[in-house]
Write a structure and sequence with these properties.
Radius of gyration: 18 Å
Number of strands: 0
Number of domains: 1
Number of helices: 5
Largest sheet: none
Shape: elongated
Length: about 150
């Protein structure tokens, strides 16, 4: 095992981006949305207009960082040491599919596209699904970390 500073930076970037995106969603789901329910509609709208662009920026930066660091970690770090391991690569494929679903839902929720207004009307439901899928992604990652290297 060698010390590779780029590998460490990419791993750190991946974990920090996941924490920011998932943590922000959990905060919004369990603290912000319930607090907003108690406010008058005009004040709710004002808060949303101030929070949405900032949270959207965090979500988009996190998604970009997760894609860059995730594919780097997989292609340059994990593929060489898990060559020929169908279980590893199959689980990684499932993890990537779940991540793409999370990215799509998160983007739709923080965006302004009229096509996704229906999702935004049921924001708590979709945020809950994203939190559950993020937990599944972390669980798959834990399993992947315990699959021995091929060499």
């Amino acid at each position: 095992m060698t010390f590779d500073p780029i590998e460490i930076v990419m791993r750190w970037l991946h974990v920090m981006s996941a924490i920011a995106a998932a943590g922000g969603t959990i905060f919004a789901l369990v603290a912000l949305l319930p607090a907003l329910k108690e406010l008058p509609d005009d004040l709710k709208k004002q808060v949303h207009e101030r929070v949405r662009p900032r949270f959207a920026k965090l979500v988009m930066i996190s998604i970009a960082a997760l894609l860059i660091s995730g594919f780097y970690n997989y292609i340059f770090v994990k593929v060489p040491v898990h060559a020929g391991q169908g279980l590893y690569h199959g689980l990684m494929g499932v993890k990537i599919l779940f991540a793409m679903a999370v990215f799509f839902i998160a983007s739709a929720l923080v965006g302004r596209a009229p096509a996704f207004e229906g999702l935004r009307q049921k924001r708590a439901k979709w945020m809950t699904l994203n939190v559950v899928m993020a937990a599944v992604i972390v669980a798959i990652g834990a399993v992947l970390s315990k699959i021995p290297f091929t060499h």
